[in-house]
Amino acid sequence: MDGSPPHSSLTYNGRRIISAIRTHGPQSRADLARRLDIKPSTVTRLTGPMVAEGLLTEAPDPSREGRKGYPARLLSIDPRGVCTAGVYIDPDRIMTCIADLAGDALAVEETPVPDRSFEALMTEAGASVARLMERTGIDPRRMAGCGVSYPGQYSGDPTRVARIRQFRDWPEVNVERDLSPWFGMPVRHMNDAKAACMAELYHGACRGLSNFCHVWLSYGIGGAAIVDQQPYLGRNALAAEWGGLFPKSRPRPSGQDLLDVLAAEGIVLDRLSDLRDDHLELPVVRGWEERAADQLQWLCLVIARTFAPEAIVIGGTLHPRLMDGLIQAVRAAEPLGEDYFVAPPAILKAEQDGLPQLGAAALPIHEIFNPSTYPGAVSKLR
Amino acid sequence: MDGSPPHSSLTYNGRRIISAIRTHGPQSRADLARRLDIKPSTVTRLTGPMVAEGLLTEAPDPSREGRKGYPARLLSIDPRGVCTAGVYIDPDRIMTCIADLAGDALAVEETPVPDRSFEALMTEAGASVARLMERTGIDPRRMAGCGVSYPGQYSGDPTRVARIRQFRDWPEVNVERDLSPWFGMPVRHMNDAKAACMAELYHGACRGLSNFCHVWLSYGIGGAAIVDQQPYLGRNALAAEWGGLFPKSRPRPSGQDLLDVLAAEGIVLDRLSDLRDDHLELPVVRGWEERAADQLQWLCLVIARTFAPEAIVIGGTLHPRLMDGLIQAVRAAEPLGEDYFVAPPAILKAEQDGLPQLGAAALPIHEIFNPSTYPGAVSKLR
DNA sequence: CGGATTAAATTGCATTCCAGAACAAAAGAC
DNA sequence: GTCTTTTGTTCTGGAATGCAATTTAATCCG
């Protein structure tokens, strides 16, 4: 059809339009002009090519039926207008997917990790993405890029991705130089918790929220803070790494801590996923759950009093019933401390924590559609 | 001379230029072009009117003397190019100033509060600013606006300034409608702690820093968080109100708490400023200081692990020797907890906490010179 | 039924702002 | 004295938006 991908020609206000539709749902050109404080003519001009290229779709507005005036046509994002690939790597497995703009996974794959070397992992991940592309028959021009995430904290130079404990032998990884070659498209990276947070921002419980915090419970305790619809990373990308509030030498509400507590009772599990339903009935697990709930209540209170987010979303890879129990406990702990004279932030349950590679797949979307990541020189007119 | 004030015609890149000079010091047009990734021709075109209007001044660059090429001319901000007024109101007094762009107060005034009604206070504040304008003989066209700050927390509708405890009888205050009429120029508002933080950003210890947190110790415990050179307010502007981490029913590191502790020992002081040097030697004050230092250490640890700022700046209206002691104690508490594998944030002493009205005076500067507050329609070129 | 009214969407032209390229100016280097 | 280097300027063109008039399709109402 045409040579250039449908997202490559978006102007700054073009991104704002996509962003507004994503946040506030399908709406007319006139609504967009009012919301974004730009002229209707600008909206018409910018949306024209987007509709032609299949990025947006038009539909009549039923809610305005029976009212005077020219009937409005609602603009919606066509989920299949652009797709992205997501790669999640942990010490045990590689999980990949092709996802559309609605966050639906068109295809997923899970591959065991044979060898933890950087080369072996990236070779396998690249091959997996290529297989998924083949299987779904996606037009490569519609692929906006590939997101890659893996657990671990950052350290030192923020332009480079950190080496992490589980992958000690990896080289010093630089996204552009070391990651991109394996996937044949632009590559973005964040650690597992921050990528999972992006999935909640674009496809999950926090869709369109401007300011919220994320708590990620896996083997460790991770997290992220979203400020004005972008991740706030802080110094060395250490912001919202809540684990730092719980010293490793003491009991903490992490998956590894649960495994340690179980092991001390003689129940040795290798992975979190080995935790079966009947384990949950054990007194030792009940006890851990109660203590972890207290610690999470305290954590949410601290988050509420520091970031004052609109919401706190909690997700992770612990057993679903553990997650549910912890979230219920935090919700019950209102009013989140004394001295509160306004309503506390909403406590939300993550919706996309079952598919960690979806978070990675959200990274290219952020890069391409978010106004704040618009590249190049800047001008503003008034 | 000319009819419009020198700051009113700044384009978006014009603001970026001012901002870059403020952050990185005097520099040549070529430096600015490289730093901001815009063309030298653009810098020439934009700086021309600024120099002509007296907003910028030119000087030869001694550091490039003896080197090849056309000698560079350094551009500096002329502190007197634009001035602002600042008004700080507390239950006991009204403090006002006229300040220039360097944060020098050209004139200050302190007036006792006769009557805490909104009308009386604003009448007196407006008259005071008018007297200062008269005294300094400032050209009204050079006045960018007036900042107004007073202590208290926000609640409810963030478009309106909150009613606070000390001023319970005030009406529901709306900045545009209720504050502007008294001062004859544009008015901006933040509470005392957040305004003080703006003074540190523009004139003090954190000049030009992108991300930092502020701890404000007065009768209460306030604070602010700066993200990308703008205040991050959060839900209901409650972000970084650190006092929320210390329930009022228990000992907390606030000035009011110190007065309460002293009162319990039979030493009844009415105001913080009544605390004399010899009070500091009392065992009860020593004890309070020690406990408050522990609490501040904990607070800074929490800030470091949540916001991960580049720096934490501590200021307030406590006795200077108390402030110094507390800051020293926090600095000595490195490494700010275990599990830290990168350097902790710098602990800085506020430089402008002696003149609270200067924080208010920084608000119009932020509004006028910060790229992120640029009004009107938006476009970006690439 | 048909003109008046209403609001959305479109079109052509004007304006604003920046990039690009050629050029001018001032200094040291050879 | 000419060449080289770097800063700074000028002028033109292009990209993006605003502005104002116009078209379009629906309801309202006599």
UniProtKB/TrEMBL annotation, chains A, B:
Report the protein name in the record: Transcriptional regulator, MarR family
Alphabetical list of InterPro entries matching this protein: ATPase_NBD (IPR043129), ROK (IPR000600), WH-like_DNA-bd_sf (IPR036388), WH_DNA-bd_sf (IPR036390)
Any one Pfam family here would be ROK
Belongs to which family?
Belongs to the ROK (NagC/XylR) family.
